[in-house]
Amino acid sequence: MNSLNNLALSFVLAGAICLFAFFITLSSSTFYFSLFMLILGNIFAYLVGDRRNNYAENKVYNIVFCFYVLLAINHFLGYQVDWSLFTQDWLDEYKFYLLTDTNQYKSISENFKDSYISRDYLEYAGYVFYISTLASIANSFFDGNHLLLQFLGTTLFGILTSVLVFKILNIYVDTRKSFYYTLIFMFLSVFSFYSFNLLRDIPIAFFYTIGIYILISKNLNKKYLKLFLLLFLLLLIWQLRFEHGLFFSLFILFYCFKVFKNNKNILILVSIVSISILSFLFFNHVSKLSSRLDMYSEFTQTSVDSKEDSFAKYIYQLPPITKEIGVIINSQIQPFPSWLLLESSTNVYKTIEGLLQIIYAFFWFIIFFSLCKWLFFERRVLLLKNEILVLSILCLIFLIANTANMTLRRIIVFYPFIFLLYIWFKEVAITRQNFKVTTFYGCFLYCFLIVIYLFLKV
Asked: How far apart are CA 214 and CA 226, in angstroms?
């Protein structure tokens, strides 16, 4: 009964947040979409949930819903106070919003034609169709497109990811710990920072997290349905960002091996079909991939060279292999220093985002430092087995593949797995004393790096 009361309370609080969003914007489209998010998310959590967990998935969703929607409102208010911060030609959010403001007057079928038949948007057709559909529905049935509505369109995927993070952790950790670890990840990681941005990265991360959950799940029932789901996810991701879709194909190959390894005939058949399709897609887009890689490399190098005192500038001058290692390490301690956004904030809402950035930068540094210590310095990488080992290798390959343009929002898709790896070590592979000492060393090193930075700046 106590558990049901907690669930009811979380639902009521989430409903109150929907009302708050309406009073802030006076937009009926924003209000009804926030209600839709609440209902859809609870249905999703119920369907994938385990009734023995006392509806833990639903409680996780509702709690994260309250926090993330408030962050989206804060993000909106920050731009409302100073609209010039948003109307920047280089800002991807602004570019996407302009598209939705135009496409809201088109029907869903017209937006579909522009995205998938005329191919007006090329690499991000899926995302433009999604946000344009939201705008079209808002204009047809409610009071029109709204900036907060578009922010919430991304936030939905961030909140849904919390349910999957819980399910992934619950495979290796008991329900109570999984519940709190999920909230820690969703509140303190970079997910909380990008969840309210009008960008493709959080939806891609959501689909990747579904794939990760399928790969590490010990339940092999409905294996053909899961294979179909992975193929469907590949199609969705492909329409959001080509490179992420291409890499996700490795998930499918690994799943085929995992499920059909004991049946050689089916494994050979599925492998031939999968490899043939993926090879066709790869070679059909190899020139596009090569040109994009060159573009990202040139863009990154230009960006790095333009900053005289940038540490990254020296990393990109290192020889191969050493450079890739340096870029990966540098990416995992970003942003550094973490208060840069706070320094440039012009209103209280942007100040809150700056504080959020400080929190997630410190939090992720501790996780990255701890994993490096456990995996490499203590050689506990030998303890990794089966799915976790393969996903760790895929994660490393993914990071190396993104060194041409290593930004947090591009590599965020593997953060739920990296956090799982951290929790797995903490709960299974190391002692409590080791955990405390490692955390202390991580905190000390982070503070030491800040002192060195300030010393060099003086």
From this structure: 7
Q: Do the beta carbons of residue 335 and residue 355 sit within 8 Å?
A: no
Please, which pLDDT band fits residue 340 given cuts at 50, 70 and 90? confident
Q: Which residues contact 258 (CB under 8 A, 6 or more apart)?
A: 215, 387
Residue 308 and residue 148: Cα distance in Å, rounded? 37
3-state SS, residue 104: coil
pLDDT in tens, 353-389: 999 999 999 999 999 999 999 998 888 888 888 889 9
Distance CA 157, CA 149 (A): 13
Q: How far apart are the first and last CA of the chain?
A: 60
Q: Rounded to whole angstroms, what are the CA distances from 154 to 6, 45, 377?
A: 27, 18, 38
List Cα–Cα distances, 369 to 48, 217, 372, 446, in angstroms.
33, 27, 5, 9
Integer Cα distance of 135 and 148 in angstroms: 11
Write the single-letter amino acid at 424: W
Residue type at 364? W
The answer to whether the beta carbons of residues 215 and 258 sit under 8 Å apart is: yes
**Structure confidence by residue, pLDDT tens digits, 51-84:** 777 788 999 999 999 999 999 999 999 999 888 8
* Mean of per-residue pLDDT scores for the chain: 86
Position with higher pLDDT, 310 vs 305: 310
Give this prediction's pTM.
0.91
Q: What is the DSSP string of 280-341?
A: HHHHHSHHHHHHHHHHHHHHHHHHHHT-TT-HHHHHTTSPTTHHHHHHHHHHHT-SSSTTHH
pLDDT classification of 210: cutoffs 50, 70, 90: very high
- Please, are residues 233 and 207 in contact by the beta-carbon 8 Å criterion? yes
Token code pair at residue 136: 């079209």
269 vs 130 pLDDT, higher one: 130
- C-alpha closest to that of 101 among 200, 241, 198: 198
Residue 384: both structure tokens together: 């990794």
Q: How far apart are CA 166 and CA 78, in angstroms?
A: 31
